[in-house]
Sequence to fold (169 residues):
Amino acid sequence: MSGDGREAGRGPVLAAGVGARAGVTEGEVLALLRAALETAGRREPAVAVLATAEAKAGEAGIAGAAARLGVPLVTYTAAELAAVDVPHPSRTVLGAAGTPSVAEAAALLAAGPGGALLVPKSASSRATVAVARFPAAPGPHTRTPRLRTPRAPVPPGPAPARTRKAGLP
Fold:
C-alpha cells in the first residue's frame, strides 16, 4: 500500500457510504469521512466512490463532498439498501428512509460483490459515514492457473521429413 492509502497497482480501493439529514454541509461530510478513513489508516485518495440513498442525491453537502473528492456519487433505492445485511441496522433510519441502513448498506453495495465493511458507521450531528473495501485483487501471492492450449494429435508413423526453404543453407 502506498502512503496515500492506495494499493500498489490498484488505485483507489474504498467505497464510502453516506447518510445525512437535510442541510448537511460538505465540510461536515468530509470531516466525518476523514475521521473514518483515519481510523482505518487510509486517506482520501483511497476513496473511489461516494454512495448514498437515491432520496439524498440532491443533498448539496453530499454532492459537494463527492465533487471535492473528485469521485462519482452513486445512489441506491431504499429497497436496494434494505436488501443488504448490515451489522448496525437502525429503526430510526428505517422510519426516516425506508431502509434500516444507508451508510453501511450504500458502502457495501458500491464496493460490489465480495466487498467488506472496513469502517462501520460513525455519525456526526447531521451525517453518517461508513467505509467498505473493494474485493481483493489477485496479487503476487495468488497463483493463477495456467491454461494449456490443446494441440492437434500427432498421427502415428515416422516424423515428416524437414524441408529447407529456398536460399537457406
About this structure: The beta strands are 14-20, 47-53, 73-76, 116-123, 127-133. The chain has a mean pLDDT of 83. The longest strand covers residues 116-123.
